[in-house]
Automatic annotation (TrEMBL), chain A:
<keyword id="KW-0472">Membrane</keyword>
<keyword id="KW-0408">Iron</keyword>
<feature type="transmembrane region" description="Helical">
    <location>
        <begin position="107"/>
        <end position="128"/>
    </location>
</feature>
<feature type="domain" description="Cytochrome b/b6 N-terminal region profile">
    <location>
        <begin position="11"/>
        <end position="237"/>
    </location>
</feature>
<dbReference type="InterPro" id="IPR005797">
    <property type="entry name" value="Cyt_b/b6_N"/>
</dbReference>
<feature type="region of interest" description="Disordered">
    <location>
        <begin position="511"/>
        <end position="543"/>
    </location>
</feature>
<keyword id="KW-0812">Transmembrane</keyword>
<keyword id="KW-1003">Cell membrane</keyword>
<keyword id="KW-0249">Electron transport</keyword>
From TrEMBL, chain B:
<dbReference type="GO" id="GO:0051537">
    <property type="term" value="F:2 iron, 2 sulfur cluster binding"/>
</dbReference>
<dbReference type="InterPro" id="IPR014349">
    <property type="entry name" value="Rieske_Fe-S_prot"/>
</dbReference>
<comment type="function">
    <text>Iron-sulfur subunit of the cytochrome bc1 complex, an essential component of the respiratory electron transport chain required for ATP synthesis. The bc1 complex catalyzes the oxidation of menaquinol and the reduction of cytochrome c in the respiratory chain. The bc1 complex operates through a Q-cycle mechanism that couples electron transfer to generation of the proton gradient that drives ATP synthesis.</text>
</comment>
<keyword id="KW-0679">Respiratory chain</keyword>
<dbReference type="Pfam" id="PF19297">
    <property type="entry name" value="QcrA_N"/>
</dbReference>
<keyword id="KW-1003">Cell membrane</keyword>
<feature type="domain" description="Rieske">
    <location>
        <begin position="236"/>
        <end position="331"/>
    </location>
</feature>
<dbReference type="GO" id="GO:0004497">
    <property type="term" value="F:monooxygenase activity"/>
</dbReference>
<keyword id="KW-1015">Disulfide bond</keyword>
Length: 543, 359
């Protein structure tokens, strides 16, 4: 083709005459996007969100967010004639009387699980590769907000159908709200329009679920995308890749089509799940009544860690000046969530404070190359994971024939010991992997060729690593360490004189010191005898 | 665009097939503008492979077409109505939809990977911060504007503006007040304490059937019933506080934690609402007399005043004083002496108060 077809050039001329879009397209059509499998994780969340908006809109056409009582007369025979709320009746109507209704409901639920799941693994990828570092701290904070809002969105969503399971979740939410000191009773009465369960909460959660939170999510997702676009994506270390460039495929045409395909893959897999993997079969649970519950009630997966925290907590309640403070609810409801979310939000700034690193970073770290960060991350995952696992301790107890209280006691200790063990193991693994890297650079890789030396000794011939692998390894960046050494007269630098300053300097040294410096492993000629000790060379210059 | 092809000699560059143009030659000779020749980092595909891939892509797109048509057909053909018919409709609709989406996705992927060139383009990054000159200009403009506006100079203007904003900012919060009534003492009472229409004590009725319970009929030790107040069988607000579990014991099984004055012939009534976060404590183990809440596994000893033996709950399930009316049916003698359900700030040491009132 030598000229664009008339249909396209006509429209684009019209648009460009009016808003000058040409300049934007000139800069952005060939915007470069680097390639790595882990960069797709966030896209899963993005596409799940789009699917949620589409299927959610479909569901609103029939769902009636009302707690008014009706007698069910729909197609699901086992509940025929049963008194229930209009919300539950309309959710049954969607499932059994609307063609494709059950499919859309199940796709909506699966997409929600994948939405939070995608966000979580994407967030872990960002954390472990240090992609939150300057200049991306703002986008990191937006991400944490998105994750927190998604939890709230999920909670308000699965409370809507008003079946026995969703009501149990709502009851726990109410019990937690009521336990907040000073304002708890008022919060609960205002949220539920009086005493629990009242007649208002579903219509209120409905407007929060379909308007307020999705609106904020949409705005934040857009901001997230725009910042990513403006700052350009990070890239993994590799040949010719630096902090000053970005290497990859252009937005038009390759990245565009790739992303479209990935959206369709995500949608296709969620459609498969929604078709063949039954989820939240509300018709089996029956209508909600505060007098009943079924054993083995579980929340959606992303609430599991809060559920586990509630189960682990020993009973502890005090009377404080004639008022009740119930730590057995407050601590599990607030501390794990607070620790995880606040810790994540502050991490970029704490790291900057400790390392004194104010540079821009566009090359992602390999997790092994920042052992303390990776260990902290795995430690946090262990903390979360134990709580999450213990959120299902009744199922574990029933399926694996373990005493129920033993699982609780296990969790009460594991929640403290587990993260510490995980920290140590991860740290050692990172150092081990770094040593392996250093060895590959200085020794080369095993060629599989055994050679006999004149003196009778057998050795295996090592060959230099492939160019791209070597470049990937050499992409390791040093972590700066704060200057804390005393000068000639025994006076430490200004920042390191106070107690906090000394602590900061100590942490900086522990955090940043490179335990396994890469040797300069240039292999101009293939060395046949490689016996130099790992790490014997000079520290590799990184800049 | 400074750097070129990352793998000049690697196998990722297609080897040349006899009779085809060299890998770096334009695919279509007559297209001098868009030919990738001379564009470093754009590595075209082998045309033979690309043609083969095209056939595969076409097949996949065709599958999408058929599956899409199948989706529409399923919508028309398979009606809902019974559980089985809903299942069939769900499987056909979902199956065709998933197939259409996945085939389309696979087609696009093959297109990108085997027909489009491999890209290894390089773009420069620029530091995010603006240069000093710009910063200085913006700073000066800001100060100039602030001066021009008079916001700095006119103190009265500045202060009254802030004053004006304060109540407006609070207005949305004030508007939320009518979301709910104030709690008052609502959490301290249940309908067990409210008098019935004819002034008689309120009967205990079985949840679900609404049958009143004759004490003489509830006579097998180890028996358990879920009980609601007569007249409030379907009032969810009332049930959220007033639901009971009713247990029958042999007299020697009861321990000191249970208030015997509030039992009738070994029949004890506890609040079913867990004192942790309010789930119904619905599981009962006869041999140990343990009541277990399935939500967070708070465990209560029913023979000993429902004291907590395990789990996060901090207080026993409150016991309801019960007796019988002249017809022999179980009734509530009064309301609970302490608030039921989860803790709340205003609750205070209700147990101590109750003891004081009793003595």
């Amino acid at each position: 083709m030598n000229a664009p077809p008339k249909a396209i050039s006509g429209v684009s001329t019209f648009v460009d005459d009016r808003i000058g879009a040409g300049n934007f397209l000139k800069r952005n059509l060939r915007k470069i996007f680097p390639d790595h499998w882990s960069f797709l994780l966030g896209e899963i969340a993005l596409y799940s969100f789009i699917i949620l908006l589409l299927t959610g809109t479909f569901l609103t056409f029939w769902f009636k967010p009302s707690m008014g009582e009706v007698t069910y007369t729909g197609n699901y025979a086992p509940l025929y004639g049963v008194r229930m709320s209009e919300a539950y009746a309309s959710a049954l109507h969607i499932s059994f009387d609307v063609r494709g209704g059950l499919l859309m409901r199940q796709i909506h639920h699966w997409a929600a699980l994948l939405f939070v799941g995608g966000m979580t693994v994407h967030m872990l990828r960002i954390f472990f590769t240090g992609a939150y570092r300057k200049p991306r701290e703002l986008n990191w904070i937006i991400g944490i907000l998105l994750l927190s809002l998604a939890l709230l969105e999920g909670l308000t969503g699965y409370s809507l159908p008003d079946d026995l399971l969703s009501g149990a979740g709502l009851r726990i939410t109410q019990g937690v709200a009521q336990s907040i000191p000073i304002v708890g009773t008022y919060v609960s009465f205002f949220l539920f329009g009086g005493e629990y369960p009242g007649h208002d909460v579903i219509s209120r959660f409905y407007s929060i679920h379909i308007l307020l939170i999705p609106g904020i999510l949409l705005a934040l997702v857009s901001a997230h995308m725009i910042l990513m676009w403006v700052q350009k994506h990070t890239q993994m270390p590799g040949k010719n890749r630096t902090d000053k460039n970005v290497v990859g495929a252009p937005f038009y045409p390759a990245f565009m089509i790739k992303s479209g395909a990935f959206f369709l893959f995500t949608f296709g897999v969620i459609a498969l799940l929604g078709t063949f993997a039954q989820i939240n079969p509300i018709w089996l649970f029956g209508p909600y009544t505060p007098a009943d519950i079924s054993a083995g009630s579980q929340p959606d997966w992303y609430m599991g860690f809060l559920e586990g925290a509630l189960r682990l907590m020993p009973s502890w309640e005090i009377n404080f000046l004639d008022h009740t403070v119930t730590f057995s609810v407050l601590i599990p409801a607030l501390v794990p969530l607070g620790l995880v979310m606040t810790g994540l939000a502050l991490y970029p700034f704490l790291e900057q404070w400790i390392t004194g690193d104010r540079r821009e970073h566009h090359i992602a770290d390999r997790p092994r190359n920042n052992p303390h960060r990776t260990a902290i991350g795995i430690s946090g995952m262990t903390f979360y994971g134990i709580l999450w696992l213990l959120g299902a301790n009744d199922e574990i107890s029933a399926n694996f024939h373990v005493d129920l209280y033993t699982t609780t006691w296990f969790g009460r200790f594991a929640i403290f010991i587990g993260p510490a063990i995980a920290y140590w193991i991860t740290y050692r693994m990172c150092i081990g992997l770094q040593r392996k890297d250093a060895e590959v650079l200085s020794h080369g890789v095993e060629s599989g060729v055994i050679k006999r030396m004149p003196n009778g000794q057998y050795i295996e011939v090592h060959t230099p690593p492939a160019e791209d692998i070597a470049a990937h390894i050499r992409g390791k960046q040093e972590i700066p360490v704060l200057e804390s050494a005393e000068d000639g007269e025994g006076i430490p630098p200004k920042g390191a004189r106070s107690a906090i300053g000394r602590l900061r300097a100590k942490m900086s040294e522990a955090y940043g010191t490179d335990r396994v410096p890469l040797t300069d492993g240039h292999h101009e000629e293939a060395h046949e005898e490689e016996h130099a000790g790992v790490g014997a060379g000079d520290r590799k210059e990184l800049h | 665009m400074t750097e070129q092809n990352e793998y000049p000699e690697s196998s990722r560059v297609p080897t040349r097939v006899l009779g085809t143009p060299p890998a770096d030659a334009p695919i279509v000779d007559s297209d001098p503008i868009h030919a990738p020749e001379g564009v470093p980092g754009v590595i075209p595909q082998d045309p033979v492979k690309a043609r083969k891939a095209e056939r595969l892509v076409a097949l996949l797109f065709l599958i999408t077409f058929l599956a899409g048509a199948g989706f529409i057909a399923s919508y028309v053909i398979f009606q809902v109505g019974t559980i089985d018919r809903t299942a069939t409709s769900n499987y056909t609709l979902g199956g065709t939809l998933a197939l259409a989406l996945l085939a389309l996705a696979a087609g696009l992927t093959v297109w990108v990977r085997q027909i489009m060139p491999k890209y290894n383009l390089v773009q420069e990054r620029h530091e995010m911060r603006s240069d000093d000159e710009t910063r200085e200009y913006v700073g000066e403009t800001f100060l100039q504007g602030a001066d021009e506006s008079g916001f700095v100079k006119h103190r009265l203007l500045r202060r009254t503006l802030l004053l004006a904003a304060a109540p407006l900012g609070l207005a949305p919060l004030v508007l939320l007040k009518d979301l709910g009534p104030l709690p008052g003492t609502a959490l301290r009472h249940t309908v067990w304490g409210a008098p019935t229409k004819d002034g008689k004590p309120r009967r205990l009725v079985v949840e679900g059937s609404g049958q009143p319970i004759r004490a003489a009929d509830f006579n097998s030790p180890g028996g358990i019933l879920s009980v609601v107040p007569e007249g409030y069988e379907e009032d969810l607000n009332a049930l959220a506080k007033a639901t009971l579990i009713l247990l029958k014991f042999r007299p020697e099984e009861l321990k000191s934690g249970t208030n015997l004055n509030w039992t009738h012939d070994g029949i004890v009534a506890y609040s079913k609402i867990c004192t942790h976060v309010g789930c119904p404590a619905a599981l009962y183990e006869q041999t140990t007399h343990h009541i277990l809440c399935p939500c967070h596994q708070s465990t209560f000893d029913a023979a000993d005043g429902a004291r907590v033996v395990f789990g996060p709950a901090a207080r026993p399930l409150p016991q309801l004083p019960i007796g019988i009316d002249e017809e022999g049916y179980l009734v509530a003698k009064s309301d609970f002496k302490v608030p039921v359900g989860p803790s709340f700030w205003e609750r205070g040491d209700a147990e101590a108060e109750a003891r004081e009132n009793a003595s």
